[in-house]
Amino acid sequence: MTEKFGMTSWDEVEFKSNNFTRGKDQYMRLDGGSNRMRIVTRPAQYHVHAFKEEGDAGFGEKIRCSFPAHNECPLCAMGSKQKNRWFVGIIDRKTQTYKILDIGQSVFKEIQAYSRNEDWGDPMKYDIDLVVDKKGGASGYYKVIAIPAKPLTEAD
Fold first, then answer.
1. Residues pairing with 67 in the sheet
2. Residue 2: is its pLDDT beyond 50?
3. pLDDT digits over 95-146, tens only?
4. How far is CA 87 from CA 31, 44, 47, 55, 90, in A?
């Protein structure tokens, strides 16, 4: 596919075929309680807008910002504030498979605090446990706990 952001025409976009299949198992689905993982990539930042229809009792939807520099995004033009999010490649310790974890600012900041701490450093050198407390409220829903460093094994 062409590498372009923003407004385009129907004729500009061309798709290349590949054998890659998408599935829900590519993304880490966090369970309540412990979710142990090893981070294996640097974070990749992207931007989203929160959208909630009137009368929606849930959390609404996340819609990706269509242009990171805000030149042509219709939601930015309407005054919708974008939020930063990150994709991180991880090894899910429950299944020992590679997955993608989608994190927001609160989890990013907790991992960042470990990475800046001289006793912990690079989070790719130790496991983390992302604990989900569904009764923890906005500030206590996620908690990141670092697990003492062990090198990756052949199986990893």
1. none
2. no
3. 999 999 999 999 999 999 999 999 999 999 999 999 999 888 777 889 999 9
4. 18, 5, 11, 30, 10
- Residue 8 scores a pLDDT above 80: no
pLDDT at 122: 93
| N- to C-terminal Cα separation, the chain | 32
Q: Are 101 and 8 in contact (CB under 8 A)?
A: no
Say which residues have a Cβ less than 8 Å from residue 70's Cβ, sequence separation at least 6: 76, 82
Task: Please compute Rg for the chain using Cα positions.
Answer: 18
Rounded-to-integer distance, Cα 127 and Cα 148, Å: 7
Q: Diameter of the chain by CA atoms?
A: 54
Pick from 27, 3, 23, 30: which is nearest to 14 by CA? 3
* C-alpha to C-alpha distance for 130 and 95, rounded to whole angstroms: 15
Q: How many beta carbons lie within 10 A of that of residue 25, not counting itself?
A: 11
- Residue 19 confidence class, pLDDT cut points 50, 70, 90: low
- As a whole number of angstroms, the distance between CA 126 and CA 90 comes to 11
**In angstroms, rounded to a whole number, what is the distance separating the alpha carbons of residues 85 and 138?**
16
